[in-house]
Each structure stands twice: as C-alpha cells, then as structure tokens.
Amino acid sequence: MPGNNGTVGGSPIILGAGEVDTSVTLCGIDFKNPVTVASGTFGSGMEYNEFVNVERLGAVTTKGVALTPWAGNPTPRIAETYGGMMNAVGLQNPGVEEFLKTDIAFLKEKDTRIIVNCCGHSEDEYCGVVERLRDEPVDLLEINVSCPNVKEGGIAFGVDPHALEHITSEVKKRAKQPIIMKLSPNVTDITEMAKAAVAGGADALSLINTLTGMKIDIKKRAFALANRTGGLSGPAIKPIAVRMVYQVCHAVDVPVIGMGGITTWEDAIEFIMAGATMVSVGTANFHDPYATLKIIEGIEGFMAKEGIHSLDEIRKCL
Ligand SMILES: Cc1cc2nc3c(=O)[nH]c(=O)nc-3n(C[C@H](O)[C@H](O)[C@H](O)COP(=O)(O)O)c2cc1C
User: Fold this and answer.
1) Cβ of residue 38 lying under 6 Å from some atom of ligand 1
2) Residue bearing the CA closest to ligand 1, atom 4
C-alpha cells in the first residue's frame, strides 16, 4: 500500500497521467495548470501562436493596456545583461478599444483563462480601464502599479503603501473581475506593500515586476537604454523573487502568482514551494518560445515521479 507521503517502501511512486492533477484554483476560478505568462513578454498569445498552443496554458496574461494608446519610450529600449535583460519599453500599447478588437477577440475563442494587465498614468486612468473591461470576457485583472519605466503612474503607486492601498480600493470598487495587484520589488519591505494592497481589497497579488537597473556602453560612453534606467528581468533576479514570494505568502492570506526569472520547471516548483499558487514565465519566452510548454510538462513529470497528486501537497511546504 502506498504511504501518504507518496512513497512505497521508500521508493518514489510513479503515478499514471490520470493520477496527476495539475489544476489550481485562484480567487474561486479554476485553471488547468498553474502556468501563465508574465505580462509584456508574450503579447496576447497571438504573437506566439506559431509555437505555443495557448490552450495548453493555465492562463494568458496580456501585455499592459491603458485607456488610450501609449507610444512607449524612445529606443534603444532593450539591453542584454548577465543572466537576464533590461527593458524600458514604457508600456507601449494600442489602448483598450483596439486591444478588445484584436487581442481579446483572439483570446476569447481559446480554451484558456484570460488575465488582463492594466496600466495608467493616474488613478482615474486605472479606474477607467478597469471599468471599460467590466463586461468583457476577461477572467481576472492584474493591476500594474510597479512598472519602473514610466514617469507618471506605474511605480509611483507601487512604492508608497498609502498610495497603493488607495488605488487598490478605488480599482476594486469598479472592477467586476477579481483584482491581482502586481507588486514592485524596488522597495525596502515587500510585505508592507503586500499588506497595503490586501488592506485596499486586493483579491490576489503577483510579484515580482522588474528591478531598476542601469547599463553603460563604455565604448560609446553612453547609456545602453535611451531611458537611462530599465527593468532587470530573467534568471539573475530569481533568488530575489523567490525570497519575496516566500515573505509575502507568509505575511498575507491572499493567493500569489510568482514570477521573476522562471526558466525551467524546477524554477516553477521552487516558487510553488515558496507559496505561489500560480507562476508566470517571462523573459524565458524570448530565448525559448517553447519554455512554457516545457515547464508544464516538467511539472507533470515531477509530480508523477514524486507521487504528488495535487500541487496543494507541496505548496508553501517550508
Ligand atoms: C519586455 C518586457 C515587457 C514587460 N511589460 C510589462 C507590462 O506591460 N506589464 C507588467 O506588469 N509587467 C511587464 N513586464 C514585467 C514582467 O511581467 C515580469 O514581472 C518581469 O519581467 C519578471 O519576470 P521574468 O524575469 O520571468 O521576465 C515586462 C517585462 C519585460 C521583460
């Protein structure tokens, strides 16, 4: 007889495909698996359609959308770094009306959950986009109050606990869908920000957004990015992200979507053990468009090999 620790006489049980359940529930919504994509790194799925059947994903998290079109920052906007990249795209987007016509029109036909990432220059703009999405086929809203690359809005709300609590409560009043507040790592105490967002009514949290960095091109004696600073992402930030997810999961009671440098299924499991309900794959999509699919298969394989029936058995296990 198998023991309840998933072993028979100390050897791992090999579960059959039907015995492994990768599904998760977040804010009362079921997802077929815990893997989504990090906003801004996967378009809205259409751009990756040739490589990734988005119906394999637990959810698609879209690029950030605002009430009106944004041009983004001047170029260059992207620079490579050790173990990652820096970007200062500046939340370029076509505005919510065009987004609904193209991106949501594509996604609503797919058998996957839709998380729309929202941005704004002011509280009114955040509220406006959230209101506009009320009756659209969108499962959850992720509110980006943590982008380091826009001068107004973005991170201004994400690094001040009072501003964060206030904008969360304003957005929450207007939203029909559950709201996920996306936290910035560019703070001294991430748990203070998590508590502020939860006090404002956040249904879930996602973290981390990028860390502010700078790169100098020594031959040109110039900044590598026109914006001078940019958001660092990729494997280089993963240990910071795991630490912050762990701290937040032990500080508040709402579910967490963990991200920051996830490149392999082992990384994803690490975030789940730290307490994340779901995980987002970001920068990894740029060097391997199949990264999400490999991670989903890897999680399934790990569960089968370790005798894990449900991810609840290993979430927040330490
Ligand atoms: C090119 C690029 C664009 C991004 N755009 C957004 C965005 O529109 N909204 C947002 O909340 N985060 C955005 N992010 C942050 C990612 O969603 C993610 O939080 C961060 O990159 C850490 O994950 P990673 O290391 O796996 O990429 C962007 C990141 C990159 C690299």
Assistant:
1) yes
2) 40
Nearest-atom index, ligand 1, CA of 209:
19
CA distances 22 to 56, 159, 227, 303, 311, Å, are 12, 34, 41, 8, 7
Alpha-carbon span 166 to 126, nearest angstrom: 12
Closest CA to 59 of 95, 113, 7: 113
Q: How far is CA 63 from CA 45, 187, 244, in A?
A: 10, 23, 23
Beta 113-118 vs 204-207: how paired, if at all? unpaired
User: If pLDDT is split at 50, 70 and 90, which confidence band does 215 have?
Assistant: very high
What is the pTM assigned to this prediction?
Answer: 0.94
What does the pLDDT look like over 174-207, one tens digit per residue?
999 999 999 999 999 999 999 999 999 999 999 9
Pocket test for ligand 1, best of 37, 41, 279 (most atoms within 8 A of CB): 41
pLDDT tens track for 270-307: 999 999 999 999 999 999 999 999 999 999 999 999 99
Residue bearing the CA closest to ligand 1, atom 6 = 40
In this prediction, residues 80-104 reach a mean pLDDT of 94
Q: Is 292 in the pocket of ligand 1 (CB under 6 A)?
A: no
- pLDDT on residue 6: 47
What are the backbone dihedrals phi and psi of residue 79, each rounded to the nearest 5 degrees, phi first? -145, 145
* Amino acid residing at 189: D
Q: Map tokens 């620079």 to a residue.
A: 79
Which residue CA neighbors atom 29 of ligand 1 most closely?
A: 40
Q: Is the CB of 37 under 6 A from ligand 1?
A: no
Residues serving a catalytic function are: 147
Q: Is the CB of 41 under 6 A from ligand 1?
A: yes
Give the span between the Cα atoms of 146 and 100, in whole angstroms. Answer: 23
Is the confidence at residue 13, as pLDDT, over 70? no
Beta strands 256-259 and 216-217, pairing class: unpaired
**What CA–CA distance (Å, rounded) separates 279 from 270?**
10
